[in-house]
Amino acid sequence: MFSKKNMPCELTVSRVVQETQDAVSIWFEVPEHQWATFSYTPGQFLTLRIPGSGEREPVARCYSLSSSPHTEDELAVTVKRTAGGYGSNWLCDNIATGTIVSVLPPSGHFTPQDLNSDMVLLAAGSGITPIISIIKSALLEGDGHLVLFYANQDAESVIFGEDLRYMAKQFPERLILIEWLESERGLPDRETLSELCSAYKNRMYFVCGPAAFMDLVGDVAHHVGIPHGNLHREIFQSLRSDPFDTEIGVKQSMTTEQARLVVYLDGDRAELQWPKDLTLVEVLLNEGFSPPYSCREGGCGACVCKVIDGDIQMRVNDVLDEDDIEEGDRLACQSLPITDTVIVTFG
Ligand code: FES
């Protein structure tokens, strides 16, 4: 039987930590019977259901885990207010110890394959949240060398500043911390980033921050010659659909054309007929299975699977790069079969 790992769970907030004037960390207590469901790798995210208010419908929002599975027992996400953002403002204004929140289990693939790798991590603003999770795990579990470039508007807006400076002191041989304040030096510039990337060409890169920052880093990395597959960027889209809606199982097919599907999930194997106009997530839900997914819009990466044999095409892909696709990765929520037989595996 397939696991129910993507089903929403109710978690209790164990504490709320004010990180800066407009950012809070929300810590969740995970009951022992849900430890396996909420196991995660550094860099992954949680999807939270934010209650509606007045005429406002509930919304779902993805937030990176700032905790590390190697250094903390509880899970934490860190949320920064965004101007006009309903989800972040609701959380910053209302969340408190004891609040019960509906949460989808961790997902995402912005995570190092090897914690021993030498890495360059670039974060701007609240983009530090998945990055600090990776740093904590890499320092404790790995033996690689890390450089963190961390840009913020001003000294007051730096999230985890003290923690990061402490880690840099504790691991002076392994963590170089470069802090950049826009109030003193303006926005991070191409020349500075080029110098940094040129000095560490063969490392793995992890980048998270506003779109303009990530675009600049991506462009610089390309010009400096960082191998495409070494550059990992965390991209969050606003969710249009509701990933907490579990009543989406039956999606009618309008075609008689079918492929043969062999699917592996959590060590189980199933063989199914796959109507060629339904996505892989839809056909699995129709058949009563529970594949991993969150946004169902091709924007989060929660549903990544790997093609072992045959081929599938994606309707939308805002997550995977050419190298991921070359290696067989596909977004199951956007995947339609091309060949008559497809073998895929999750996880
Ligand atoms: S569920 Fe988000 S990309 Fe497929």
TrEMBL record:
Highest taxon listed in the record's lineage: Bacteria
SUPFAM superfamilies, per database record: 2Fe-2S ferredoxin-like (SSF54292), Ferredoxin reductase-like, C-terminal NADP-linked domain (SSF52343), Riboflavin synthase domain-like (SSF63380)
InterPro entries associated with the record: 2Fe-2S_ferredoxin-like_sf (IPR036010), 2Fe-2S_ferredoxin-type (IPR001041), 2Fe2S_fd_BS (IPR006058), Beta-grasp_dom_sf (IPR012675), Cbr1-like_FAD-bd_dom (IPR008333), FAD-bd_FR_type (IPR017927), Flavoprot_Pyr_Nucl_cyt_Rdtase (IPR001709), FNR_nucleotide-bd (IPR039261)
GO MF entries: 2 iron, 2 sulfur cluster binding; flavin adenine dinucleotide binding; metal ion binding; monooxygenase activity
Keyword Iron-sulfur set for record: yes
UniProt KW Coiled coil keyword: no
Cofactor(s) required for function per UniProt: FAD
Keywords of this entry: 2Fe-2S, FAD, Flavoprotein, Iron, Iron-sulfur, Metal-binding, Monooxygenase, Oxidoreductase
Domain FAD-binding FR-type: 6-113
2Fe-2S ferredoxin-type domain segment(s): 259-347
Name of the molecule in the record: 3-ketosteroid 9alpha-monooxygenase subunit B
Organism, scientific name: Nocardia fluminea
